Amino acid sequence: MSEAVLFSEVTKSFVRSDGSVHAVLSEISFYAAAGEVTCILGPSGCGKTTLLRLACGLHKAESGRIIIDGADSGDNGKTASNVAYIPQQNTLLPWLSIENNILEPIRLRGEEIRPQYIDRLELALHETGLSEYRRNFPYQCSGGMLQRVVFARQLLSDTKIWLLDEPFTSLDHMARGELQKLLLRLVKAEGLSILLVTHDISEALVLADRIVVMPKSARGSLHTISINEKPRPETAEFISYSRQLRRQLSELQ
Hints:
35% helix, 5-stranded mixed sheet, alpha/beta
């Protein structure tokens, strides 16, 4: 199985306001396989978001290598078009309608909205269940609908590697479940590779093919748990699996 994202002995530090150096990541190694959902599971402040920002080029590592779809992320930004970084807060423009928010990245690249983009827009709206809401504005949309818009915008870009930073945290239980199902459908239909950050064990079990466990002081090769068959949520098997995973996490902290 090929690797969509590979971290090899990656180290990253930040300088605090008092001038001291805080090492967030120390020689971290793991990979996310192509065509799968890989969840990075760990407590707040352990460096999960930093990993995603390194992968998309928003931060630069002090040492180590990050390989995206076979290309070194240090090669003058060549991988920028291969990945989509989806932060916790959506970046929709409030003065644009849903469909124009989806099309806006194309305009920002200086391109015309050609017929091929309109065709892809229609498909993205259909796949995310937004067709009847296309002329709504963000203030008229629920949190779950806004996240669908973000997904539709990425579908239009045709980017196959998505880096998601706790995308469902602010949603209620029902909306979160619907969006999780949508994401899994898109992975299968579009051949996506997902690297998703979460601190929610249940969410990791629902979504992940593999879970990368990240302790508070992460160093070296990260422990990975393969989920061969996803247990159905709220079943005895799911609860048992969750308890086992929670025990493993506590042992690794």
